[in-house]
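Your task
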Amino acid sequence: MKNMAGVEITLDTWVTSDQHWGHENIGWMQPRPSDHFVLMRRLWVERVQEDDVLLHLGDLVVFPERCAVPKESWIDGLPGRKILLRGNHDKQPDRWYEEQGFEMLRDPFLWVAPDERIVLFSHEPDRPHEVRSMVGGWDVNVHGHIHANPYYPDTPSLDYRNVSVEMTDYAPVRL
């Protein structure tokens, strides 16, 4: 099934979130290894093939001017058809991300999985009972944003799948 951007989402689609490349203090805010930027890039390159679809659920780069490593940036040449759903730290204009090889999505979206469950892809976990709910009416919410932090205490019965890098051993994972 294709989403609103015309991207074919399947169970083989890669998902990831919250690399925060260029954010030098993220390792103090979250329990990350000292070489986390190198580790995330290496694992992405090892796993994702050029013709694979990768859905990035936000907070790709925080400070683009600090992303340089010798002769390239952290995100330069990452393989895959890369689709980015903006996170709260993705502040660059669409054109900047497009120049880095990413296609842009503006809003969370729903997908019907092969088992007929409705999956919401979002940056932040959705809380359907709140006024600020993004969509509601989903069975599973695949998201990032909360890193290794616990879920909201008032949502124990909801099916959330956190794909922040701290929860996926710093690598993209398949749906």
